[in-house]
Amino acid sequence: MASGFQWAKIQAMFDAFDADGNGYLEQRDFEALTARWGRLPRVAEGPELTARVEAVIMGWWRLLSEAADADKDGRIDMAELMAMVDRLPSMREDVAATAETIFDAVDENGDGRISRAEHQRLIDTWHGRSMTTADVFDRLDEDGDGYLSRPEFAVLWTQFWISDDPQEPGNVMCGPLAPTA
Fold it and tell me: Considering the domain 4-170, what is its CATH architecture?
């Protein structure tokens, strides 16, 4: 059973994905998310990366609709999504595999690392609007070198999706979280 912390984290993801704000995740929300990611410079310039990004994001939709849409109405509400959260730890390799494509999409200059500015674009793209991020990057950049390497990113990405430990830095990978009671 998901904790209050996980609920808050997943609610933030749900709200970011729910493009039309109708309280449900639907295929068109994932299509809108794909379009937002498609505007990132490296994605827009490369058909291979565009196809990978689309495959990852629409793959999330397919997985969710098959596994979480209990009433098969083509819409996933927050309760249905939370039922899926308990299954994520057993899908660690699948979750980590999506990090590779997201990393490539965000690494605008192709230097093999994510800068503070590139990470900010990840957050803004995720949410579909400019977001204030405070010290999020500093929490993620544990070695303090000013960048996230591919291995660091994969760990943080997996923490974001799977972690129930509020102290793990990956929980803020896609932006600051609202405090939980």
Answer: Orthogonal Bundle (1.10)
